[in-house]
Write a structure and sequence with these properties.
about 100 residues, mainly alpha
Length: about 100
């Protein structure tokens, strides 16, 4: 999707080519992305803290991460991956 830079084909090479409206929209987009990045970092910190809390309660954080990843997958995708994993492990003599 192309952005409206005020009708100029050289908009990417000259800041003056952007209309006032396009410059304001760009500022808003950048501010919004920066705010979302801050929120994302805060959420990542909260998740890390929660895994630490789980570890402090005796849970294995690595296995807990696997459980979370497992629950995100749909059943069919999960079953296909399990079959392929078992095939690989069998081929390697691990099971």
């Amino acid at each position: 999707m192309a952005a409206d830079f005020g009708g100029s084909e050289t908009a990417t090479s000259s800041p003056q080519a952007l209309t006032q409206s396009a410059r304001e929209k760009l500022r808003q987009l950048v501010a919004r992305i920066e705010k979302l990045e801050e929120e994302k970092k805060g959420i990542a910190d909260d998740i890390k803290e929660t895994y630490g809390e789980a570890k402090g309660m005796g849970y294995d954080a690595k296995v807990l991460r696997q459980v979370i990843r497992f629950r995100k997958q749909d059943r069919q995708e999960r079953e296909e991956q399990e079959q392929i994993r078992d095939l690989y492990l069998h081929a390697l003599g691990e099971i």
